[in-house]
Predict the structure.
Amino acid sequence: MKVKAELRRPIAMVLVFLALILIVIALLVLVLPTLAQTISQLGTVLSTVLTQLRKLLDSSEFVTKDMLSTIVSGIQGQSSSISQALITFLSGLTSNIGNIFSSIMNAFLIIVFTFSFLSSKEHLAAMTSRLLKVIFPEKVVTKLTCIGQVALETYDQFLMSQLIEAVIIGVMIAVGYSVFGIPYGVMTGIFAGVLSFIPYVGPMIACVVGAIFIFTVSPTQALLSLLLYQIIQLIEGNLIYPKVVGQSIGLPALFTLAAASIGGNLFGLLGMIFFTPVFAVIYRLVKEFVVAKENQVD
């Protein structure tokens, strides 16, 4: 039984890494084949939309020929701007593919390092405890050890709750899109699940990208997908994230929302990701301090 207990954590870590790799592979398999097709279809869709809009304006009694000419010229100008922006974006994407790959690898290495750190936390804690005992008095070592244990437990629970939330968000989007007959539901759901590690903003980025793909099939369904996402976002922002993540790390819903907001304003995306567990650690330490002082008074 001792061997099995020792192997339990490494096996769990391997399964987590395999799951992450499978998610990335699935995302690439779903996105890359449709990317070129979507870009090629986008120009055709825009042209069709402009033609239908011009017919609609032609049949209107309230639009004169001069007004029609002005409107069409303006729309064509915007269409050209959009096309040029897409070309510029793709050119930049191609020229900076090395930077993009490097960013992806760095993000993956951070995840690997984090899980590796948590998997060997007992060994690291023992080494740190020995070092602290050599440097500091026993009373200080006890307090520092308590703080370290709170931080490790909080980050461990935070990562697990983020994985649970990623699955919930991905399934909600995939099922919601399928119910309403919106294409690319699975792709958008997987993408949103991966990006859900960025609170609130991550799934929104995924759904906007998904809406671009959907637009090539049906502009109406693209708008419907954004509307459906707003509903899912309300559920995710007000119920799922505060409940799943906040409760798992012992942080009230209000503080969970405040942590993500303050972290995002101060440090951007990284602040949104890591400020929640930092808040949780501070909240728990302050709470334990207050309880200890109250017990001393009693």
